Amino acid sequence: MTRTERQRWLLPSHLVEPGESGAARPRRTVRDWIVDTSLFLLAALVGLIAADAGAEYSSEPVILFDQLAGAAACCALWLRRRWPVGLAVGLSLLSVVAPVAGGAVLASLFSVAVRRPFREVAWIGALAVAASTVQVFIRPDPTLNAGIAILLGFVLILLVTAWGMLVRSRRQLVEALRERARRAEAEAELRAAQAQRLAREAIAREMHDVLAHRLTLLSVHAGALEFRPDAPPEQIARAAGVIRDSAHEALQDLREIIGVLRAPGENGDGDRPQPTLATLDALVAESREAGADIVLELDVDTAEGEPAVPASTGRTAYRIAQEGLTNCRKHAPGTKVTVTVSGRPGEGLDVTVHNPAPAGPVPHVPGSGQGLIGLTERAALAGGRLEHGPAPDGGFALHAWLPWPS
User: Fold this and answer.
1) Measured distance CA(388)–CA(376) in Å, rounded
2) What is the DSSP secondary structure assignment for residue 394, as one 8-state letter?
3) What is the SS3 assignment for 72-99?
4) How far apart are alpha carbons 155 and 138 in whole angstroms?
5) Helix boundaries (H) for 139-276
6) pTM above 0.90, yes or no
7) Average pLDDT of the chain, as a whole number
8) C-alpha span between 334 and 357 (Å, rounded)
9) Does some domain include residue 220?
10) For 58, which DSSP code?
11) What is the pLDDT of residue 307?
């Protein structure tokens, strides 16, 4: 038995989805057949007891009518799922002259209480009580007091309808819990997908910030070797050394990022220290060795007793300066670049990268602009802001402010 078949066997027919044709008529499951058969047998048993009790003081035609009416009422119960309200009304009216239909009436009232709202259950129950009361006077039982008979009929109808409403409430609760579980599962899948997307974006930004700087150095020096094959051997050797070191650093940075994706316990080289503000001098020195003219102005309060720059803030500042130098090398080669870092605890950390307009034509270097977008997102995630655009002198300026708690 498949999972779907088990669910259909366990669910009541009014909770089973309609067929492909879209018909509203519920499908009778194995469970429904068991319940309907049990109710049919129970109603038949009650009818036989009532018929046997009334046979002592009824005539032959009345006994025959009771038998036919009881059989018809019990057989009509097989329609209770399709027409519960109409069946309950008809059986209630029939029970006025045929006490043997009492069991079928109770079964139909139970079905109405399970499938219909309280307003319909209330007026159908009131009709059944009225029919039971009238029956006491039309078909009285000589062995039972009229008041007791009326009270007994009222109590039985009340118990059956209350039981049916309890079953309805329980089914609605179960369905609500299932729907809540399905919704929670869908939300969990959505959150997982969103977390994966954010992780991919973070890794993509990190790869861009790290590798763009190294690969730009490779491109610049490889281009110099291509267009100046007659350069002195010393310059060629220095350019080749920069290319070799940049390729090695790019490979190391790539290993570091890939290490984040490894499962816990796997060996790798992902335990290298992350760059901070203290390693900014090394970044500038590396760019100077590549031939860039860079002025670094560092004015950060490091007095004794003052809190140091947080590691996350320093790392963000490093990445901003790195991306700024990479863009200057790509779009304004040969210009004098000024990197300014200043700040105080409680005031924040300011990072500015400025370059004037290049004097001559600039070779086209492909770029998607994703670096500045990634830096803006990185600064926003750190609680700061980033601005970039043309400078008044015709050059380009990149400025970021990052929080530095006191």
Assistant:
1) 9
2) S
3) HHHHHHHHCCCCHHHHHHHHHHHCCCCH
4) 20
5) 146-227, 233-261
6) no
7) 75
8) 10
9) no
10) S
11) 62
Q: Is 396 exposed, middle or buried (0-12, 13-18, 19+ CB in 10 A)?
A: buried
Residue 315 and residue 356 in contact, taking contact as beta carbons nearer than 8 Å: no
By the 8 A CB rule, do 96 and 138 touch? yes
Last residue of a domain, one of 114, 143, 172: 143
Rounded to an integer, what distance in angstroms lies between the CA atom of residue 142 and that of residue 152? 15
Q: Which helix (H) or strand (E) holds 319?
A: helix 311-331
402 found inside a domain: yes
Q: Which of 10-24, 72-86, 98-112, 181-195 has the lowest average pLDDT?
A: 10-24
With bands split at pLDDT 50, 70 and 90, how would you rate the model's confidence at 368?
low
Residue 207 inside a domain? The answer is: no
| Cα atoms found within 13 Å of the Cα of residue 390, Cβ hemisphere only | 5
In the listed set 143, 159, 179, which residue is the last one of a domain according to the structure?
143
What's the token pair of residue 5?
């078949």
Residue 45 has pLDDT above 90, yes or no: no
Q: In what order do the strands lie in the sheet with 336-344?
A: 293-300, 336-344, 348-355, 396-402, 385-390
Instruction: Give me the DSSP letters along 99-116.
Output: GGGHHHHHHHHHHHHHHS
pLDDT of residue 7: 45
Of 328, 373, 332, the residue nearest 353 (C-alpha) = 328
d(CA 111, CA 86): 11
- pLDDT the model gives residue 351: 93
Q: Is 318 exposed, middle or buried (0-12, 13-18, 19+ CB in 10 A)?
A: buried
The better pLDDT of the pair 362, 55 is held by 362
Best CA proximity match to 125, nearest among 170, 164, 74, 180? 164
CB atoms within 10 A of CB 202: 15
- Does the pLDDT of residue 9 top 50, yes or no? no
Number of domains in the chain: 2
Closest CA to 85 of 52, 48, 117, 40: 117
Strands 385-390 and 348-355: unpaired
Distance CA 18, CA 318 (A): 62
**Owning domain of residue 31:** 3-143
Q: Give the mean pLDDT of 190-209.
A: 76
Length of the chain: 406
- Which single residue is written with the structure tokens 């999972």? 3
